[in-house]
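Homework help board

Subject: predicted structure for assignment chain

Our instructor gave us this sequence and asked us to write out the predicted structure in token form, then describe one feature. I got the tokens but I'm not sure how to describe them. Can anyone check?
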Amino acid sequence: MSHIFDHFVTEESVTVTFSSSLENIDRTCDEVGGFLKQGFKEMEEHFFAIKLVMREALTNAVRHGNRLDPGKRVNFFLEIDQARSIRMVIEDQGDGFDWQRARQRPPNEDDDHGRGLVIMTAYFSSCGYNRKGNRLILEKRLSPLI
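My token output:
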């Protein structure tokens, strides 16, 4: 079984495809952190939110979507466009989940899981899934530069 970690970086985006492992979540976060620091220092106030939401979404994809199966891949895409928005897409190869039902159910304070949607919607402007529930699309609109 091959261990996959492929990444491609442009001036405005970073794409990573990796086999499902917790170590690859760390590698992806490091890759994106470097991308942000190198090209988007003026957005430093948003780095915490981006990294927090990215880690939450990647962890969900690896643990819940692909069930830690290293034979399954996660695709990650982050783009920062000139219109001052951040777009993130995370897709796993799992069966998906009923995100509409999950969105209606408030998290239980005593649970050690189930807060991902709350975190993502708190820090990003929009948070949606494909019908199957295995592709997450996040967008964060930023105030224009003055």
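Reply (TA_rk): Your tokens look well-formed. For the description, you could write something like this. The CA atoms of residues 74 and 92 lie 5 Å apart. That's the kind of observation they're looking for.
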